[in-house]
Amino acid sequence: MSDELIWAVILGMALANFAVRFVPIAIVSRTRIPRPIMRWLSYIPVAVMGSLVAGQVILPDREVIAPWGNPYLLAAVPTAIIYYKSRSFLGSVLAGIVAFVVLRAVL
Amino acid sequence: MAFGVIAVSIGFDVWQSVVCSATALAGAGQFIALAVMKTGEGLAAVLAATTVVNLRYVLFGATLSPHLRGMPLTRQAVLAFTLTDETFAVNVSDRRQGRSTGMSMAGVGAIAWTGWVTGTLIGAAATGLIGNPSRLGVDFAMPAMFTALFIALAEDRRHIFVGLLAGAVAVAFALLGKVGFDIPASWHVLLASVAAATLATVVWRNDE
Which strand (E) or helix (H) includes residue A59? Predict the structure, then answer.
């Protein structure tokens, strides 16, 4: 990955992420968003995460692996449970990595 | 912290990952950018992905808007920059208790920014010291982070259903690629998310 691309991404992300937050605040504090659009927006984050997780754990490296032999899919289960119980990102990611390393070794 | 670990493992240096966290302050938006970069996609795909993930800020802006009326544009800009899932949650609970002011919002933002940037620095520096990160399971850091974010963002059964549906659609797109219907990988997540969210909005349009 080239340094130029990384810096371009950093600059682009700074601008894009500021714009997506600032423009709605500036506009919305002066008008109202229709209810159906609000509802549609409320579904977007969880849909994005669902499609990211599914792609990464069901098809790691774009290959189809049988579920019982797939450490990515199996390690996602304890990660989800531990996050649900602890509400700690760092704790659940570290626990997930440990589960993944163990599963990768034994499968 | 996890952002620093993952950024360094895909080729950022420590300095780049810290600058990225300091200027974007985008949480999930930064993680998805790394995921898209890892697939070898270019700048446009990365920015499209981060923008879609952060469309939820439109919603946050709307929720906070009663407080923002009449606030000068520069103050709104500062608030916008520090608006994250965490600061939004704190500001909303402050407001419910009638404690929210412009100053308290700025304070919450400053604390969140410092924590996020420091965490990135520690994660990136620690990963740089480890020789072969793959041996230690860093390959799973990103899937683990998205799994945790999925649980964090799923507020009720409908959210869970929409997330699972989007996941199924994304996997279906990837499988279609294997039989010749190739949709560029960066589009899988966007198309699947928009399709699932739109379906949910239409199906559940009548009840509240």
Answer: none
Q: Which residues contact A57 (CB under 8 A, 6 or more apart)?
A: A70, A72, A73, A75, A76, B143, B147
Pair of tokens at residue A60: 């790691």
Report residues of chain A scoring pLDDT below 50: none
- CB-CB contact of B21 with B8 (8 Å): no
User: How many degrees, rounded to 5, is the angle at CA A82 between CA A77 and CA A85?
Assistant: 130
Neighbours of B39 (CB within 10 A): 14
The closest alpha carbon to B82, from B99, B57, B51, B59, belongs to B57
ipTM (interface predicted TM)? 0.84
pLDDT digits (tens, 9 = 90+) for B30-77: 888 888 888 888 888 889 888 887 777 776 676 666 667 777 888 888
Helix B141-153, helix A71-86: angle, nearest 10:
40
Token reading at A84: 């649900």
pLDDT band at B181 (very low <50, low <70, confident <90, very high): confident
A51–B188 CB contact, under 8 Å: yes
Q: Which of A5, A11, A18 is nearest to B20 (CA)?
A: A11
pTM: 0.74
Mean pLDDT of B95-107: 64
Token duo for residue A32: 């109202």
Token pair in block for residue A79: 């990660």
User: In this structure, which amino acid lies at residue A103?
Assistant: L
Question: What DSSP line would sit under B99-132, residue for residue?
Answer: ---HHHHHHHHHHHHHHHHHHHHHHHHHHHHSS-
Judge: B144–A46 Cβ closer than 8 Å, yes or no: no
Q: Best interface-test mutation with A: which of B147, B149, B156, B193 has the largest number of A CBs within 10 A? A: B147
